[in-house]
Structure formats: C-alpha cells, structure tokens
Write a structure and sequence with these properties.
Blueprint: H1 3-11, H2 26-44, E1 50-55, E2 57-60, E3 69-79, E4 82-85, E5 91-96, E6 103-104, E7 109-113, H3 116-158, H4 164-204, E8 206-208, E9 213-218, E10 225-226, E11 236-237, E12 241-244, E13 249-256, E14 268-273, E15 281-293, E16 298-305, E17 317-323, E18 340-345, E19 350-352, E20 355-362, E21 365-370, E22 372-377, E23 380-385, E24 392-395, E25 408-409
Parallel strand pairs: 1-25, 10-11
Antiparallel strand pairs: 1-24, 2-18, 3-13, 3-17, 4-12, 5-7, 5-10, 6-9, 7-8, 9-12, 13-16, 14-15, 14-17, 15-16, 18-23, 19-20, 20-21, 20-24, 22-23
Length: 412
C-alpha cells in the first residue's frame, strides 16, 4: 500500500474525541408556555353571573266606588271547633269504629275500651244491693211482731197484768227494730249509689263523639293502651281520633303591627287558597284579637267565610286581601281609565344611591331602572312607574351587577 492510499484511509477515520453538537429541545418549552397561557386566560376570563328572572304583571287600579285592596296577608284555615276524642279512664282499646273522613254525629260511639274489670265491679255492687234489700225484708216481720207485742203489753198494763219493765222492754224492742230498718234502708241507698257508680265506669269505657263533625285523624288501634294523661309514657295513646266541625271553619292571619290600622272588624276581604289560585272567596273580618305577639310584632286577625264550600279544608294555606268599603262617588267628570300599576316580586326591588331600582333583563344583559314603589305586601311590590307590563326583571340580584353587564338567565 502506497503512502497515498494510506492517507486516503486515514481521512475516513472518525475522531472519537470530538462530540457531536446537539439541538435545543424547543417543543416541550412551547407546549409548557401554551399550557401556562391557557391557564392564565381561564383564570382572568370574565365571569358571567347567573340570574333568575320574573315577568312584571299589570294590574288595573280600581275605579271610583269599587273596593280597593288595602293589605295582603297570609294565614291558614282553622277550625273554631275541633277536639281530640279521648277516654275518661285508662284502658286497652278493644274496638275503633271510625276512619278518616267519616262523618259522625253528637253522641255517636267511636270506640270501646276493655270493660271487664268494670263489669265485674258492677256485678258485685248489684249483688250487695240485693243482699241489702233481703236484709230489710227480713227485719220487717220482726218489727211487725214487736209492734203487736207492744200493743198487747199496753192492754195488760191497763189492768195491771203486766209490769212496767215488760212494757219498757217491748217499747225498746220496737224502737231498736225501727232504727235497724232505717239503717238498712240507708244501706240499700248506699248500695244503689255503688251500682250507679259502677254503671258509670262501664259507660266510661264507651267513647262517644262530643259534637257532630268529620274525623280528620285516627290516632289509636285495637290493642293499644289509651289514657287521658298518658300515664304509660310514649307507648300510651291520649286520644282515639280528632273530630272537626266543618261549619266552624275560618281563617287566622297575622297582620304586622305597622299595618293594623288598615284592618277593622266587619271589613270585607277576599281569600285565595293556595290549592285553588284562581278561586276568589268572599270573606269578612270577624274580630281582631286584642293582643300582640312581641316576638313577631304581629296581631292575629280572624276572618270568616261568607259561604262555606267542601273544597275548604282545615290547615290549608290561604292569602287574604283586606279591602276598603268604598262608597259610590258622585261623578263630576267623564270616567277615565285607571292608570295601570305593575306588580313584581318584592325581592326584585333594591335600594341604590337612595333610590329604589330594579334590574331589567333584555338580550342577555341587564339595565338599571329607577322605579316608584306604591306599596309592598304579601311578598309583592306594586310599582306606580318605571316598568311596563311584560318586561323581565331580575329577582334577588347580585350586589356586583352593573348597568349593561352581561348575565345568563337561569330557568326556575
């Protein structure tokens, strides 16, 4: 091999002492920066608040001469006459003769309790009465004989045929027998009272309705112990059933002290049951209870129905609108249509800058609107100006809302 060939081969050798140059890892850095940027954008993104809305409703103000609603209040239908039918004595229930919804009359038997002990006591008292009567019958012949002996001794004494001691003995015998007869008659009277007492105890085991009404609850079953004082603890019933006189139904509402001046006895009212929202029931104020609840600052008002209906049931929720007794007005000018008032939930009205405002929802944005509140009652606010019927307003608006802010409506 020539020197030129050796040189060519040497040029083909790899130098192990020289390290190859590596490129910088740009791809992981780019991915890390992209993730960091996305997280920063997500953290700083604008948050769109969620709001619930309601629709403003129009109501027409009453014309002259019509009743006007002065106050709205909520309450419950109550029965003026309702009672838990119970027993006078403690005993085991043997029979229950009523069910929920059953009509009962005054004095009707609704249940019976075990009367075996009372019956045994009654039989013993009757036997003692019979024994007392037999004893009195036994004394009567002896008294008759003693009286005849006394007459005989009196005749003998007139002829001095009998001594004074014999006559005194005969008189004493008659007096003793008469006194014994009086005592035995008293024993008979005591035995008769004892029989009456046991008969009453037997009668007490029969439970009757105290007045006519409808059974609303059935509280005991055969085999249970019933006691008017619940002497047996939690396992002892205190009543058989609850009877309600449906003719005594009325409404009880709590009126705030601040609005009590708007309510008076005999005032007309209009009731609406929660179960029948479209049914208007004519009512009248019966009485204003002359005491207040210091905890709630309310006064209880009793409202009576002008006419009862089978759909009205005890403990139903009801709203009462107290109305004014407007007298017919003399028209001095052509009648004009009353200005429409707007009713919105009271929670939609807030205060800002010393003014009452509402937030109007439109095109996924809110608009600040100043309103004039006429009155608030029953959870609703009546607006005299600022809104029109059909507009959507935000209820319970967040404190961070601003005019023109974007929001997202949440369906209730």
């Amino acid at each position: 091999m020539t020197s030129s060939d050796r040189g060519a081969l040497d040029s083909l050798k790899i130098d192990r002492k020289v390290r190859p140059r590596r490129s910088f890892p740009w791809m992981p850095v780019i991915l890390l920066l992209a993730l960091a940027g996305g997280a920063f954008w997500w953290w700083r993104r604008p948050v769109v608040p969620e709001v619930k809305t309601a629709v403003a409703r129009a109501q027409v103000a009453p014309a002259a001469g019509e009743n006007q609603t002065l106050l709205n209040a909520s309450g419950y239908v109550t029965a003026r006459r309702a009672a838990t039918v119970s027993a006078k004595v403690t005993g085991k229930v043997t029979e229950v003769l009523v069910e929920e919804g059953m009509k009962v009359t005054a004095g009707q038997i609704v249940a019976r309790i075990d009367d075996s002990n009372a019956q045994a006591g009654l039989h013993l008292a009757e036997a003692r009465l019979e024994a007392a009567r037999r004893t009195l019958e036994e004394t009567q012949p002896t008294l008759t004989f003693a009286e005849l002996e006394l007459v005989r001794f009196l005749k003998l004494r007139t002829s001095n045929a009998a001594s004074l001691s014999d006559l005194a003995r005969a008189e004493s015998e008659v007096a003793v027998l008469k006194a014994r007869q009086v005592r035995q008659a008293a024993d008979i009277a005591v035995a008769e009272r004892s029989v009456d007492d046991w008969k009453q105890q037997v009668d007490d085991t029969i439970i009757r309705a105290s007045f006519a009404g409808v059974v609303t609850t059935k509280d005991a079953q055969p085999g249970e112990i019933i006691s008017p004082m619940s002497a047996g603890g939690g396992f002892t019933r205190t009543g058989i059933c609850t009877v309600v006189d449906m003719s005594s139904l009325e409404i009880e509402v709590d009126v705030n002290e601040s609005y009590l001046i708007r309510v008076q006895s005999g005032q007309p009212a209009e009731a609406t049951l929660d179960a029948y929202a479209d049914w208007r029931i004519s009512c009248k104020v019966i009485a204003i209870i002359p005491t207040a609840d210091r905890q709630k600052a309310t006064v209880k008002v009793r409202v009576g129905f002008d006419a009862l209906d089978p759909r009205i049931l005890p403990e139903m929720g009801v709203k009462v609108a107290f109305q004014s007794s407007a007298s017919p007005a003399v028209e001095t000018a052509p009648a004009t249509k009353a200005a429409p008032l707007i009713t919105v939930p009271e929670t939609a009205v807030t205060a800002q800058g010393g003014r009452r405002i509402v937030w109007v929802f439109r095109d996924d944005k809110v608009e600040r609107r100043a309103v004039n509140v006429s009155r608030t009652s029953g959870g609703e606010a009546v607006l005299a100006s600022g809104l029109t019927s059909g507009e959507k307003i935000v209820i319970n608006p967040p404190a961070t809302l601003t005019d023109g802010a974007a929001v997202r409506e949440v369906k209730p």
